[in-house]
Every structure is written in structure tokens, then in C-alpha cells.
Write a structure and sequence with these properties.
mainly alpha; 9 helices
Amino acid sequence: MTLLAILVPLVALCVVARGVGFLLLVGVVTALAMLVDGLAPLQEVGAGLALLFAIPPQVFLARYQHDATLERSGAAVPFFALGLMVLLLLACGRAGSTVFPAGLCTMVAGLVAVVCRQSMVWQWAGLLTCIEGVLLSAVLGRQPVVLGVAALAGAVVLLLGGMCIHRIMPRLVAVRAAGRHGRRTGPAGGGNNT
């Protein structure tokens, strides 16, 4: 197993710890881990999908106000995910598997983010991280059917998550326009402000 495949779960832990900001790095490292052994069509499709599920959320969320939801779970969450990964590695070692289960560990990290985080943006990042892990497992295991199912699930998660965020989170344009309007009417308007 390559170093890049080992790095994917570690970068996925950064998503658990810091949120959607590391999703782009997860997608890039996952795509590189898929392409390191060659350029077969399955690997190219998997790498393209990994980037597709990692780049649009970053571009999309740049139009919205930062989600400052306070998290109750705090710093223990990444260590919980790391502990689950270690248990998974030990289980694979006892079963005689010599392949590092990078995709499985990435899926575990994504599921931990979904279960332990309350903010919708964190959960969206966790689901997409989980999809990245499924894609990596499908490419490393040469399973095109699993890749197709993961692509369909990733598209659904991407669209539904984006629609929910669009409905709930305030857009930067609206926040800036309200701020300008308040500055214009504030000093001169006197008691007419509502």
C-alpha cells in the first residue's frame, strides 16, 4: 500500500477535527492514491469522482456566512475516530489481511463526523468523506459496481446537502446588503428604523 493511501485516513481525521475546510485535501489525496498504480479507466473515473465530491462544496460554501455552531463534543471526537481506526486495523491484522484498509478507515472517520457533530456543514463534510472512502475501497478492490453505487450516493449527498444549506444558511450577499442598508439609514433615519 502506498504512502498516499495511508495518508487518506489521516487527512480524513482533519475533517472530523476541523470540518469541511479539509474536504478538498481529502479529495486530492484520495485521487492521487487511486492514480499511483496506473491510469486504468476505473482509476481515472474514481479519481475524477473524488475531486467532483471535494471541490464543489468549497466553492458553494464560499457564498454563505460561516457556520459558527458551537460543538458540544469538543476535542475528543478526533481521538474517538482514531481509536476506531486502530481497532479496525487490529481486526484486519488478526484476520490475516495484509492490505491497509485506507478506504474503510476513511469511511469510519466520515461516519464519526456525522454521528458526533451537530452542525449541518460538518455532517455534510462527514458524509462526503465517507463517500470518498467508499470510492477508494472500490478502486483499490477493482469493483466497478461499488464505484457506481458510490457515485450515485455521492451525487445525492452533494445535491441534497447543498439544497439544505441554501435554505438554512444566510448568504454573504444578503448579509452585506443588510449591513449597507443599516449604515445608510442608521444615523439619518433616527427613530424610523424598524
